[in-house]
Amino acid sequence: MSPSKPLTGDSSIKTWLEDPVGGPIIRDLLSQAGQDPDVLRPVHRLALKRLIKLSKGSFSQEMVDQLVARAAAGDVPTGAPAASAPDAAEAAEAAPEAEAVERPEWVERIDQGRFTGKTVIVTGAGSGIGRATASRIAREGGKVVAVDVSQERLDDFRAEHDGAEVVTLVADITDDAKIAEIIAAAGGRIDGLANIAGIMDDMTPIGDLTDAVWERVMRVNVDGTMKLMRAVVPGMLAQGYGSIVNTASEAALRGSAAGVAYTASKHAVVGLTKSTAFMYGPSGLRVNAVAPGPTITNIEASFASPLGAQRVRQAMALLPDAAEAEALAASITFLLSDDGVNINGVVLASDGGWSAA
Description:
By secondary structure, this protein is an alpha/beta fold. Helix content is 41%, strand content 11%.
C-alpha cells in the first residue's frame, strides 16, 4: 500500500476522516462542539477548505491552517476517536474501484456575457440556490432583480456584487401588491424569471397533516410561483421572448422525498410549468423546471410525525451526496439562458442520479 499523501485544505473531508492522523483530529474537533462525524456525510467529497464558506463563519481559514499543521506534525489528541473504516454504503460505493481515487471537484466556470442585456427576476435570492443563481446571472452580465424576505441577506448579497447591476427588493411573493413592486423594479423589460423561493413542510403524511401546514406550504410554493408567472407573462408575450424556470424538487418526481404538503406543492409546480410551456411555446416563451436533489441550503426539514420520519428516512438510504447551491444554479441558468433555446416544458432532475435509483 502506498503511503498516504500529506493532508491539505484541498484534501476531501472523506480523506481527512479516513486518515489515521487526520481522522482523530477531525473527530476530536467535532466532539468538542458536541457533533458526530455523520454531520459531514452530505459534504464528505468536498475539500476541507470548502467548509469555510458553507459554515458561514463558524469554520475559518485559520482553523483549516491549524488542522493541516497538526496533521503534518502527527499531533493526534490523546483519547481521540480513531479514524474508522468506511461504512457499508461507502464500501459498496468504492468496491468497483481497484484503489481509492479522489474525484475532482466541480468548478464553476463563468461565461462573462451570457446574460448581457437581459433582466432576470430571482426569488429567494438571499440564500441557498436563489442566491447562487442570482450571483451567477449578475457575474455573467445580467441585471438581477433579487427578491427575498430578508433585508439583511439582500444587503449582504448586494455588497458581494459591487459593480454588478443588482436591484434588491424585500417582498412576500404571496402578496399581490409586492408582486406589482417586483415587476416595477425590473424597469419595463423582463427576460427571465427564476422562481426559487420556497419552504419545506414537516414531513407529515395526510393522516397527520394540519390545515396550517398545508395552507402555508401551498401558499408559498404554489400561489407565489403562480402569481409571479402570471405577472411576467404579458410582458414576455409583448416582446416575443421570455424564459421561466421554476423550482420543483425530487418530491415532484416521487412520493418518498417529503411530507404530503410539500410533495403535492411540487407536483403542482410541475403542472404550472408544463401547462404554461404548452400554452405559450408558440409565442416565444420557454417554461421549464429544475428538480433538485439533496442540496446544501438554508431550508431545513423537521419531522412532526414519527411515521413520516420513519418512511422518509428509510427512502433516503440511497440518497446521493448533497450538492452545493452553485451546482443547482448551473442547471437553472442553463435553462434560463439562450443555451436552453430548444428546451421547453421539461422537468430537469438535477439530483446526482437520485431519480434514476
